[in-house]
């Protein structure tokens, strides 16, 4: 076959290819002084006291109850726990959770 790898292999990439891609992205962060969360696909979490959590760069809502909000992020899962939690705003790139927040944690 001329031209290198079959298309299927390029689509999935090997583990070493993904590690290499991540290292390239890390270098871009340093060289171009770009925000790490944008280049590396990291979530950005902004807490305002214990009353509001803004989660940017999420992958979707997993679970929502009045005492727990689970959100899919590139690193795994982000869990906001507390009381009287509500989703004040949700869009394709951010989720705003309001209420009495007692903890924010990552799993995955």
Write a structural description.
By secondary structure, this protein is an alpha+beta fold. The chain has two domains: 11-38; 41-107, Immunoglobulin-like. The chain contains three helices and six strands. Strands 1-2-6-5-4-3 form a six-stranded antiparallel beta sheet, with no helix packed on it. The termini are far apart.
* Beginning-to-end CA distance, first to last residue: 39 Å
Counting structural domains, the number is 2
Portion of residues in beta strands equals: over 45%
Shape: elongated
CATH topology of the largest domain: Immunoglobulin-like
Q: Which strand order does the major sheet show?
A: 1-2-6-5-4-3
Using only C-alpha atoms, the radius of gyration works out to 18 Å
The CATH first-level class of the largest domain comes to Mainly Beta
Q: Write down the overall mean pLDDT.
A: 82
Protein traits:
108 residues; alpha+beta; Immunoglobulin-like; 2 domains; 6 strands; 26% helix; disordered N terminus
Secondary structure elements and their pairing?
Blueprint: H1 7-12, H2 15-32, H3 36-39, E1 44-48, E2 52-56, E3 60-64, E4 68-73, E5 76-90, E6 94-107
Antiparallel strand pairs: 1-2, 2-6, 3-4, 4-5, 5-6
Brief account:
The chain has 108 residues and is an alpha+beta fold. It is built from three helices and six strands. The longest helix is centred in the first third of the chain and has 18 residues, at 15-32.
